[in-house]
Amino acid sequence: MELLVASGIGVLTAAGIYLVLRLRTFPVILGTALLTYAVNVFLFASGRLVVGAPPILMDDASRYTDPLPQALVLTAIVISFGMTAVVVMIALGAFLGSDDDHVDDQDGALDPVRKLERAE
Amino acid sequence: MSHWIATPIVLPAMVAAFLLLVCRHHLGLQRIFALASGVAMIAIALGLFVQAFDGTITLYQLGDWQAPFGIVLVADRLSTLMVLLTAVLALLVQLHAIGTGWDDRGRHFHTLFQFQLMGIMGAFLTGDVFNLFVFFEVLLIASYGLMIHSGGTRRTQAGTQYVLYNLLGSTLFLFALGTIYAETGTLNMADLAERVRQIDPENSAGIRVAAVLLIIVFAIKAAIAPVHFWLPASYSEAPGPVAALFAIMTKVGAYAIIRIYTLVFPPDLELTQGLIDTWLLPLALIGLTIGMVGVLGATRLDRLVAFSVIGSMGMLSVAVALFTAEGITAALYYVVHSTLATAALFLIVDLVAEHRTRHAELVTAPPVPSAGILGAMFFAAAIAMAGLPPLSGFVGKLLILDAAFDSPLVVWTWAVILTTSLVAVVGFARAGSTVFWKAAEAQERLDADLDDSLTQMDNVESKPETDPRRQPALPLLPIATLLGLLALHTVFSGPVNGFMAATAEQLFSPEPYISTVLETEGKEIEYHGSGEYAEEGDGDGHGEGSGSGEHGEEEGH
Question: Which pTM was predicted?
């Protein structure tokens, strides 16, 4: 199970980093979303992986799973969800204002591809 | 347990909610309550500052749970100093925003401003790293709103970059926190300090990765090269008063570096040897160079100030990266100076760009209204920023140069600091003379053209008024106050430096901090084995009933 979770985090992170390095807003936002998923699973695993054990005090439990990472993940999920919503709105505003969804510098004077696109 | 430590966080949160829910449609009321809150914050911050002045460390346990299980707020010299600095800056920036009408150009300026203050204050006061992350997010999400206040395409585009960069920073922060928790099993700073010291050096890969990840995160906030790229566009496109408030945001990063790397990963710790002096110091010098060269090369006034922020953060991180008591003393002196000088410059540039025909572009244009006084203020602020005598930038730089004397990189440090100072002086002189000095010339040329065209048209109805509209006094007041504070910071640099030295001493002997946090008892919980819990008050902070020694059983915990 450790291998599965670890490789899951790895694949999510790798895909996220690839997408974050893209030029347009949409893939970049998707990339940040993937990265936040990866980090959520990572946080969850930071309390060690335990199957079938309760996180809170119980009379008939012999072993427990660490409850703190679950609380941390909850916080992280809420925050990343809110942040992603904010960035989508701001990026949408920027795109509608300029008809251009590149994330690099606005003028783009050095970008031949964009010049071609503009010319069309 | 006094509840005053929590008020710098609770008050802005309440005021923000009040502004949003009650005076949403009434700007006048918003201004009144925001200013009242600003004044109250300064009073509270002063109280906390005086309380911590003699080295007292005050602890506040949220929900009365004992650390490390509960979250704590800690007010020591460094925290209260930063809280006071933030409170003063916030009130002045609010005055500027009201005086220039920036708060009227979009919605919810004051609400977002209060939330931003809440985040900043929380980041300075918290004693828990995960809580630090949460307060970072609070201040960031408010800053996203402030950054794109009043809209505009360029601003929202710069805002997108800013948000994305910080989103990545937050993700890295979470990875670092996850690693720390996996390695140590705690997130309380004082508890971390104890546990990190017990980690076997043979088996320390995880915690070393976490230390590096954390410093990258804080370097992003503090705009240290090579992760400073978010800063120029965001700060120059942000509304003037917001950029001035952001002057404290980079300092949050610097504060976090100072706090974590004196408490949790202190310089004498075997595990993280070389992290600060091998990596941070050269990068800080590079950042300083990039910033000051940017000042020289900028084609817009707001970009110029943004690059000077990178430069001054570089200078600050040089002092931090020395990681000696003298270095931190110099850094703390420079933090106050740099915050005030940066804010003053952003506010001046805002007024200049507002009324100039060519806005913030660095080309000659007719003079702005009240060009005399604005020019004088720019001159003073630029002197402070570039670190020329007689203002505090010079004192700060001397302190840093002096502290760097024992560093192995002393030659490099001195050479870079002195050269970049010269570059910055030239950059500021060029900008100042273009905007203020050559403005009269441009006006004459314009008048001549105008006269020509008027005589050609041959109907001289009314010559346009040439005497420039005067600047209203209110926006000038905060700038003058900031410059006055800079002058005071210089005049009283002896006592101030004494206080900073005491602060640095407190940071480098963290035992009182750790014992205060970990040994103060919270409430006690008894477990009776049947799913019922009884709470025992510790006689402190539980109101009247718990003082008599009778502990009534309370259900529902």
Answer: 0.90
